[in-house]
Amino acid sequence: MSSEILIRESAIEWIKRNTSFDISIDPLPVSVEMFIEKYSEIMGLRPGIASESISGLSQSFNGNVSELLKQYASELIGEEFINSEVRFVRAVDRYK
Fold first, then answer.
1. In sequence order, which residues have a C-beta less than 8 Å from that of residue 69 and are 6 or more positions away?
2. How far is it, in rounded angstroms, from Cα 35 to Cα 23?
3. Of 16, 48, 69, 74, which alpha carbon lies 20 to 30 A from 34's?
4. CA distances from residue 2 to 28, 41, 84 in whole angstroms, order as listed
5. What is the widest separation between alpha-carbon atoms in the chain?
């Protein structure tokens, strides 16, 4: 399996885990395809460093990868599909 296919499948798994979007739609909407492309770009970045310049001795840093993915998913797929990070714990279950 090529790395492009693995990255695409990984992006689809991310969408399944982190959104309520129905990924079984065929063909996928352009916005989802764009997210998959952005996912591929983000996964290709070196953690923490976005760009470097040798002669000017400057570095640009990127943010947290998971936050970048959530931001792109929210913008491209839609905020209404993003799973909430809020978790409810019943008081009875809290001490078990």
1. 14, 18, 39, 42
2. 12
3. 48
4. 21, 16, 33
5. 61
Q: Name residue, tokens 């990255």.
A: 7
> Distance (Å, rounded) from C-alpha 39 to C-alpha 12?
10
Q: CA torsion, points 20, 26, 32, 38, in degrees to nearest 10?
A: 120
Q: Write down the pLDDT at residue 48.
A: 62
pLDDT at 58 over 90: no
| 2-32 residue pLDDT tens | 888 999 999 999 999 999 999 999 999 999 9
Q: Two tokens at 67?
A: 């936050």
Q: Which residue has the tokens 């079984």?
A: 24
